[in-house]
Amino acid sequence: MAETGRFRPRLQILSTCVGITTYVANPKKLLKHLQLAQAFFDRSVHEVAPDLIGATFLVDGVGGQIVEVEAYHHSEPAAHSFRGLTARTAVMFGPPGHAYVYHSYGIHWCINFVCEGQGSAAAVLIRALMPTAGIATMRRRRGVKDERLLCSGPGRLCEALAITGAYNGLPLDEAPFALFARTSPVDVVAGPRIGISKAADLPWRYGWAGSRFLSKPFRAGTKS
């Protein structure tokens, strides 16, 4: 058969769909298109939170797909911003699309994504990931082999991704962070948040239905 054109080898990237490999001619262009920019976070925290389920979150190339989050808003007492602007919560009151990182009980770090307009002081706590990139590095940092235990919980997640207070206030659309939209629909469930005593009845915890990487299963029958 006559050659009709010069062969151009395809480049391979892993999509955010579980178990699917996508071949594209220009992966950099595709990744740029999928990257979540500041505008994504400049919306209601209750829209952003479920939309983050299935997104890919990397820190220096290590991370995976987000499977569990919680929404927090200054109008409810479980939010750090409920009592107003402080040195600790200043990032929450700043522009959307930035990392709010705090030390929980002086034991472990937690990372949140700031949402809504400047001054709104809303954020999404990233509670769990399904590891997909840099798993060996995560295992070394966490000292465990079971992939389900690497990022199932906000403290474990930050340890696995080496997130500390040094990342507080950094923009999410710049290195060392990389955050990409999900490429296919996921089944999102909702339920009460975990480990809080105030506003504990609000169904502001969102997760990927049936994921084995959740920090805690959702009740049967719950939907977003």
Structure description:
- With 224 residues, this protein is an alpha+beta fold.
- It has helices spanning 27-34, 38-41, 45-51, 135-142, 154-160, and strands spanning 11-14, 21-24, 56-59, 62-72, 99-104, 108-115, 122-133, 177-180, 188-191, 205-208.
- The strands form 2 sheets. Strands 3, 4, 5, 6, 7, 8, 9 and 10 form an 8-stranded antiparallel beta sheet that branches. A two-stranded antiparallel sheet has the order 1-2.
What's the structural blueprint in terms of helices and strands?
Elements: E1 11-14, E2 21-24, H1 27-34, H2 38-41, H3 45-51, E3 56-59, E4 62-72, E5 99-104, E6 108-115, E7 122-133, H4 135-142, H5 154-160, E8 177-180, E9 188-191, E10 205-208
Antiparallel strand pairs: 1-2, 3-4, 3-8, 4-7, 4-10, 5-6, 6-7, 9-10
Taking the sheet with the most strands, its summary is: 8 strands, antiparallel
The CATH homologous superfamily name equals Methylpurine-DNA glycosylase (MPG)
The rounded distance between the terminal residues' Cα atoms is: 54 Å
Alpha plus pi helix count: 5
| Amount of beta strand | 25-35%
What is CATH's topology name? Answer: 3-methyladenine DNA Glycosylase, Chain A
Highest-level CATH class: Alpha Beta
Kindly provide the radius of gyration, computed on alpha-carbon positions and rounded to a whole number of angstroms: 18 Å
